[in-house]
Amino acid sequence: MANSTKDPALRAGERLVELDVRTQDVEINMGPQHPATHGVLRVLLRADGEILTGAQSHLGYLHRCAEKIGEKVDWLQYLPYTDRYDYLSAMNNNLAYSLAVEKLLGVEAPERAQFIRVILAELNRIASHLVAVGTYGMDIGAFTPFFYALRERELLLDIFEKICGARLTYSYIRPGGLMNDAPAGWLEQVKAFTELFDKKWGEYWDLLVDSKIFVERTANVGVVSEELALAWGCSGPMLRGSGVDWDLRRDAPHLVYDRLDFEVIVGRGYRGTVGDCFDRNYVRMYEMVQSNRMIRQCLEQIEDGEVQHPDVGLLLRPAPGEAYVGIENPRGELGHYLVSDGSKIARRLRVRGPSFCNLAVAEHLLPGCMLADAAAIIGSVDIVIGETDR
Amino acid sequence: MSAALPPAAAAPQGNGLTELLGGLLPDGLPFWALALTGAVVSFAIIFAFIAVLAMFATWLERKVAGHIQVRYGPMRTGAWHGWAQALADGVKLLIKEDLVLTSADKPLFKLAPMVVLSTALAAFVALPFGPNAIVADLDLGIYFIIAISSITTFGVIMAGWGSNNKWSLYGAMREAAQVASYEIPLGLSLMMPVMYFGSLSLNHAGAMQSGWYGMHWYVFSDAFWIAIPSFALFFTAALAETKRAPFDLPESESELVAGFHTEYSGIRFAFFFMEEYAAMYLMSAVGTALWFGAWNFPGLSLLEGTVLHAPLAVAAFVTKSLLLVFVMMWVRWTVPRIRIDQVMALGYKYLTPLCLLMILLAASWEWVKAIAFGA
């Protein structure tokens, strides 16, 4: 309301009366206990009615000093702590840490172990993306798809339980190979799952992602441009959703990924702008299909053999040196930077977590959005607080 | 509660409950005594109906949600499919501590659930349950229901403001924004059947659909091509009126924690809960009465004059209404929530113009009929 008492448009004797209404932005705490923040994230929002004018995320409610612990326990003892950063993809975390330690040791896991590792990593990617897409539905008000997603995730957890005995924190992939070989019938169970999943995938697509309201809520919302995504070090579906064709499974080949035929799914603005919330979910949805494809190829190529490198035992003493290995976790690049001084305990252990970097962008997306979009945007980043806080 | 005042005021006209009581009570009673008895009896009947309905609907919602979500819902409480779950919950809510925040605006906070529930109760007086089974057969029944149920909004806004919680305030604000966008199409969408029946009384509308052995429903009438799209418009607006998904913005769980009723517990929360189910039933019953033949079903007219006629008619009406309630639940557990600007765009840009177009069509059709058949 501009003060225009001397408006030339007014005729003689007319006066523009203006009320002196002062308004103030509302400051609201979204979290640490809020249904849409997926854990104990706290976002301090500033809003003018329904429109957000500012956002600041406060982290650290789940900080457990994982990296410091890594400098106090020996190399193998640290493995269970990796399960607990991104508890939705513990297999991938185990794998990331194991590969880094193996690089320090200068060894490589046997081929059968590598195939089983890829199978597990991709199965866990499916499980993680199922939760991501399912909870994203809940964030924007659709409860049912979550249960459909969890139905298939249960089968995956059964598969994991059969191979290692745990359903969430596996500690199964370890430096040098695997804890044990796959039990009899396990590969058949995985094969049955891949066939089932192809049929079930369409249900999430039809029920949630392709529904009119979902598209209305996500298309053109929370657009991360290519520059923004690269500048903030985003990775995973967050980066690929913005149209950047970058996937460590293809671009930094490890394990047997170079022997598998798969596509890297990239956001192209399928229902709106490149890099909107829909694209990120589109990438997650189709990555599940690609993971399923990779698992099937692994099942065809896998042969019998050892699953643990003979020189890698329980007590490890890598030669002095340093190593960094980053792999493609469901949420992006999970990297471990390890420094060894030749002892049984790491000199320095540093983790580069994808959720942490991806979340940083959210602050830049929220201002100017509606309050309801806050849930949609934070959900589409797909954070796991266990990993942002570590 | 002042819920039952309208029937007393409306007592002299129509053939409602008060008339019936007038026949039962001894002659020579003053009017105020008759009116008071009518008010108390009708309140008791409606409150009992809503309480039972809310319990049944809670159980139904859980079962519907459960089966849609590939699970069973409650199975343990009570012997058969967890039928006693709602009863147990009701008892729990009754004996729970009634928390009132020290920072709350206490009068508003305490008044809000009463306003919300009493308006829902009051709307039921103009709602028929069967032929002439109506508390007050108002000539302006539909108008009364729409007017009274709009007052619920004030209760919601009072709750949101009185809670002194920012999330609650957001819920209240959204309700205020939402009410302006869907009340208009809701009212307009009811005009098509009103024009067809030439009456604002639901009882009358029900009676007019009793032809063809009970199949002369509005959706099967000569104006079916108006009836079907107008019902779609009405149902969409009714979902918004009852704050059900995809229009559950005032309480949107994943955004506003629980919206306007975040700070309520115990019996006050139960009041909001009962209101939600009462409003769902009310809207479904209005839809049934106007579009789906009210209490009429094939063969009902053959039973005219027998003892079975009234109970079956009531059963048919309640069943049909509950079927629409089921559809509301079905929608809720299927679709995501839309955003507030989208609700308003839907109300103003699409529903209202479409309703106006349908009114034009309906009016033209009545005019054409009048000219062609001299009806």
SSE layout and pairing:
The complex is a heterodimer of chains A (390) and B (375).
Chain A lengths: L25 E5 L11 E7 L2 E8 L7 H5 L8 H5 L6 H16 L5 H29 L4 H21 L8 E2 L2 E2 L7 H24 L2 H7 L7 H6 L5 H4 L7 H4 L25 H25 L19 E9 L2 E9 L7 E5 L1 H12 L5 H11 L3 H5 L1
Antiparallel strand pairs in A: 1-2, 2-3, 4-5, 6-7, 7-8
Helix pairs in contact in A: 3-4, 4-5, 4-11, 4-13, 5-6, 6-11, 11-13
Chain B lengths: L4 H5 L7 H8 L6 H38 L16 H11 L10 H18 L17 H22 L3 H24 L1 H7 L4 H7 L2 H4 L9 H18 L11 H4 L9 H26 L17 H24 L7 H34 L2
Helix pairs in contact in B: 2-3, 3-4, 3-13, 3-14, 4-13, 5-6, 5-13, 6-7, 7-11, 7-15, 8-15, 11-13, 11-15, 13-14
Flag low-confidence runs of chain B: 1-14
Overall pLDDT score of chain A: 86
What is the tally of helical segments of chain A?
14
> Largest sheet of chain B, described in full?
none
Class by SSE composition of chain A: alpha+beta
What would you call the quaternary organization? heterodimer
Q: Portion of residues in helices of chain B?
A: 55-70%
Instruction: Determine the strand fraction of chain B and express it as a percent band.
Output: under 5%
The description of the largest β-sheet of chain A is:
3 strands, antiparallel
CATH class of chain A: Mainly Alpha
Name the CATH homologous superfamily of chain A: Cytochrome-c3 Hydrogenase, chain B
Q: List low-pLDDT spans of chain A.
A: none
Run of helices and strands of chain B: HHHHHHHHHHHHHHH
Sketch the topology of chain A as an H/E string, one letter per element.
Answer: EEEHHHHHEEHHHHHHEEEHHH
Rg of chain B over CA atoms, rounded to whole Å, is 21 Å
- Content of β-strand of chain A: 5-15%
Q: Helicity range of the residues of chain A?
A: 40-55%
Distance between the termini of chain B: 45 Å
Anisotropy-based shape of chain B = globular
Gyration radius from CA atoms of chain A, angstroms: 24 Å
Mean pLDDT of chain B: 83
